[in-house]
Each structure stands twice: as structure tokens, then as C-alpha cells.
Amino acid sequence: MNVKKLTDEQLVALFIDTQKNLYFEQLYDRYSDKVYRKCLSFVKDDAKAEDFTHDIFLKLVLNLSSYKETAKFSTWLYSITYNYCIDQTRISKKYSEVGLDDNFDAPDDDDDAQMAELEAQQLNKAMQQILPEEKSILMMKYQDDLSIKEISESLDISESAVKMRLLRAKEKLRKVYLEGVLFWGVVIAKLVSLFFRND
Asked: Where is the RNA polymerase sigma-70 region domain (predicted)?
């Protein structure tokens, strides 16, 4: 039997029936990198993302018998990954610890690149200030390109609830982003006025 040709769902069923590591190892090979990259998008730390990935696969192997084929295995694993990362960010409070002075070293000779970098930083800072649940649903939709149906299955909520949460999360992000832009705009304006004022 060529395990690489088996579907995820077949691998799960065979592992549950036989408890042979071969089947679980194939699932690990298929998804460990994706889970790691998702963890890394939450914690921004290689070592911590690796720890999270190991914990998630340990959680997975202990709970594999509870998997129901009402959703795709990848969607179910995605849900476990998101929930674990959200729980961990709540515990550690790391989602609010983003420095205000990160990456302010764009080249002086390229104003457009500098402004784009500042805007990207402000958006990233805004993402860190909203709730983990809000951040995760926005990432599912706009970073991972999941459909409303896939997000619904992953979070085990209705499609209308997904749409409502997305709307609220986008509004919250927009508000936080604009407040940050306004704040820094005022700061820069004051610095410029101080620099150029006539004594």
C-alpha cells in the first residue's frame, strides 16, 4: 500500500484501527510545515512556533479518535491549530507586545518605500491590538484565503455568524489603524513644527 496516495481521512481511519505510526507520520509530513507557519504567524518566534507545533500534533494524536468526517481533516486540524494559538496568546499576552520603533530603518532616499513600510508597520501594530479571535478570523479570510464555508466549519459556527464576525473585526481593525495613523500624524506634525520653528 502506498500511504502517500491515501487521503487524509483514510490515513486517520487506518491509524485509529491499527495504531501504526506509519499513518500518523504521513499526516505529520503533510501538515507539520503548514501548522508551523501558522503558529509562527501568531508568535513571531521560531523556537516558540516549533514548540507550539509539537504540542498541537501531540494534542492531535491524543484526540484523533474524536475526528468526524463532517469536515475535511485539514479544516479540523486548522481549527485545532487556531484554537491552540489563540489560547496560548491569551495566556502569554504576547499579542500586545509589539514595539513602536520596530524596523524604522527604511532607506532615506526612497520616500515611497519608507511610507509603505510605515503603513505596513501601523497595520501590523493594529492587528496586534485587536482580540486574538478577531485577528484569527481576519487571517483565515484574507491571509489564508479560506471561504466563508470553510471558516464556518473550522470554527463550528454558522456562515452568517462568520460574516458578522468578519464585519466586526474589519471595523475594529480599521478603527485601531486609523487611530494609530492619526496619533503618529500628530506626533510627526509636532516634531516638524518644533524642528522648523523660528526662535
From this structure: 27-90
Question: Which residue matches cell numbers 489603524?
Answer: 177
Select from 63, 97, 131 the last residue of a domain.
97
| Cα–Cα distance list, 164 to 69, 109, 157, 160, 183 (Å) | 26, 43, 11, 6, 29
* Average pLDDT over all residues of the chain: 77
Pick from 42, 76, 97: which residue ends a domain? Answer: 97
Q: Give the DSSP letter of residue 132.
A: H
Domain that holds residue 169: 99-199
pLDDT tens string 29-72: 999 999 999 898 888 889 899 999 999 998 888 888 888 877 78
- DSSP letter string, 41-73: HHH--HHHHHHHHHHHHHHHHHHGGG--TTS-H
Q: What CATH code is carried by the domain that includes residue 21?
A: 1.10.1740.10
Assess whether 84 and 66 both reside in one domain.
yes
> Amino acid letter at 122?
Q
